[in-house]
# Entry
Amino acid sequence: MKGFGTLALIIGICWLVFALSMDVSVATGAGGRVNNLGLMADRQIHTIVGGMIALAGLLMVLLGGKTSAAQTAAQFDTRPCPLCAEPIKNAAIKCRHCGADVSPSRSGQAPLAHGWAVQIECEPWQHAEATKAIKRIGLPLTKGTPKLLIAGPFPSESEAASARESLISHCDLHGELFLIEPAT
# Structure
């Protein structure tokens, strides 16, 4: 939004400069010049249009992208329900929208360094979209490669299998379970 506002502000200012530099006089036969009412009206219209575009751009730059601290905190304290995608609290165990039982998010806890994970192979051009899909359903994501995403780790194989089923049903992402060994 701010980028579009900046563009509108620049266009509006250029339009204003053009309008204010318009010559509104015409030559007379005796070597003099007189103001032309039609050209003066055109300059007035261009000045108003340029000013409105510049004002709109300025408002977009000033107001676009501002979020309050409460909105930011609420955004980090929620996650989408894996079944209905409505926002729910991270600590929720039941969705208030669809009534589904969900496991609480581990976002407040330290991430696991080892455990079971789901390895998903994808093309590099699909990587960003697949990453967003995994985050949207609230699964932890471990750093992978451009061709490999790793959802997890999870404390148990059954949780990893459940995550794999969620990935298949909600995101159409297929992966294999594997065990991340603890670092020694």
Remarks:
- DSSP finds five helices and eight strands in the chain.
